[in-house]
Fasciclin-like arabinogalactan protein 11
Amino acid sequence: MANPMFHFFTILFFIMFQTISAQTIAPAPAGPTNITKVLEKAGQFTTFIKLLKATQVADRINSQLNNSNQGLTIFAPTDNAFATLKSGTLNSISTQDQLQLVQFHILPTLYTMSQFQTASNPLHTQAGSSDDGQYPLNVTTSGNQVNVTTGVVDTTVSNTIYSDSQLAVYQVDQVLLPLALFGAPPTAAPAEAPAPSKPEKNVRASDAPSGSSDSSTDTSDAVAVNRNAVKGALVVGVITAMMMSVSCL
């Protein structure tokens, strides 16, 4: 009969060997976090990646993630989201405004999906000054759904692309257009209503200025003309009769 202690040490040795082997063949730890690689692996974010690189925001994100403990939240629009924009939208804004647009999709704080439920609106973004609130985002939740509104666009978080203790990347199906860049121009103030006119007073013929077309004056003038015409006719008739009488004598 085999010694029980022999079996015990045999089993113990086998367990230790398996543990050491497992530690030896374990994969090497992943390299530094790289936002463009995260998006490339997920696919369908080509346009957003180009903007991140063109504005050098990608380099800033990678530097912050790998050289500090500051967390970040990124809303990544898909290629289809950019395709639905009105033609020429991106080209219609300056390079500086393109930078603000990209940074508008980045929150300088890590938010998990559950943390959005207790977030206080408006959320500050990396666009503009962190204190002036010029480029705010608002989020609301309904169950597990997170809704994002900018004042121009309303959309929802449709997928979690990447999440760790420092970075969260969420897919959105619309480009987040900030109100400060794409809001409707302010409407003009309504014109003031004209002051009510004063009621006109009746003007007597004697008070009316020369050239007045007052109807009462016109009527008086017409009557005077008619009277003068009658008088003139009577005078002519009398003179004619007298001349005829003299000629007969």
